[in-house]
Amino acid sequence: MCFTYHNEELFAEGVSLHKLAQEVGTPFYCYSSDKLARNFQAYQNALKEFNNTICYSVKANPNLGVLRTLARLGCGADVVSAGEMYVALKAGIPADKIVFSGVGKTREELTQAIKNQILQINAESVAEVETINRIAIDLGLKANVAIRVNPDVDALTHVKITTGKKENKFGVDWDDAYHLYRAASRMPGIRLAGIAVHIGSQLLDLQPFRFAFTKIAQMVRDLEKEGIVLENIDLGGGLGINYNVELPPTCEAYADVVRETLGDLHKHIIVEPGRSIAGNMGILVAEVLYTKQMGEKNFIIIDAGMNDLVRPAMYDAWHTILPVARRGTAPIIADVVGPICESGDIFAKDRIIEPVQQGELLAIMCAGAYGAAMSSIYNFRPLVPEVLVNGEEFCVVRRRTSYEEMLSGQSVPQWL
User: Fold this and answer.
1) Which CATH number fits domain 3-31+279-407: 3.30.360.10, 2.40.37.10, 3.50.50.60, 3.40.190.10?
2) Dist CA 374 CA 112 (whole Å)
3) Over pLDDT 70: what percentage of the chain?
4) Which residue of the set 75, 341, 366, 395 is catalytic?
5) Fold of 33-277
């Protein structure tokens, strides 16, 4: 295990979290290289019978150290901005393993993608396909394009992270996709490379995947009857992880669904896992600032806030919270809260937890995905360090920002 107790003290691989706290201060993110690699390899092993590219979803955690670790393992990247494409390339991920997704790509972003000749651009509207075509012609190139179709499948997940229903902003309407493929096949700047689908995040049931992939298989067959032959089928990401008591599907079970629905097409399969690669490889470590009791209510106030980890405030998300030093005392019921001037700055409400004292450390688990990536400087709080552990070694892969750095992009008007 990557985060385990040794003599009642929580370690990240072979590194003491107390030692890290003394070195870098709190709060800080801590990532396990071993868990990151094993999560990637689980996909690699499960899908080895297919011609496949695993394109890690950079939005889950874009840290350069995380991406370099994955690049060395042969991983590709799914990006949703030119910035993510830039950091993926800087990390050593080849352009021909990069997929560019997202509903609102700018002309500048599309230009960079076409110039880099990435694996494919997942286009999400008629207007985007037409824009890609014009840019590619101007550059004297052909753009590798897949059309992201919206299969109108309910992913059975949180409403804010479902992406494959008609009312969602993503993809091209199913009934319009055939016409767009026909039109795109005649555009001189477009090379139709594939088809893409992504129905949501944190899926715990394989049935929505089965529905979506079955529809995709039929569309591929219908397009081939019209002479439109595609190389790639991009299945998106979405496999859930265990935050509390969830039982997410295994990569092997997911691969079985791919085999059942798409195996006979013999296409290049692209998958875009993010949370299921990065989620449980990371934790957020915070110091207890104060404890207090108001009536029958107990509060544990820590130095991490919703600006550091926004998921509980945004999604009412559950994160297991563990004491870094385990004492075995009888648990209490308490709210674990941060210092932000917002009532929503709560990490856990009415949580059964071992009591802790001022100055002790807590670890917020499964924070490797959408933790640091979604952090902000709200309340003018610095972005916290990120530490990557490898066995008994560790490296600060993003240092804490200073107030001077936070102000460096600002200026005072001349009239002041």
Assistant:
1) 2.40.37.10
2) 24
3) 95
4) 341
5) TIM Barrel (3.20.20)
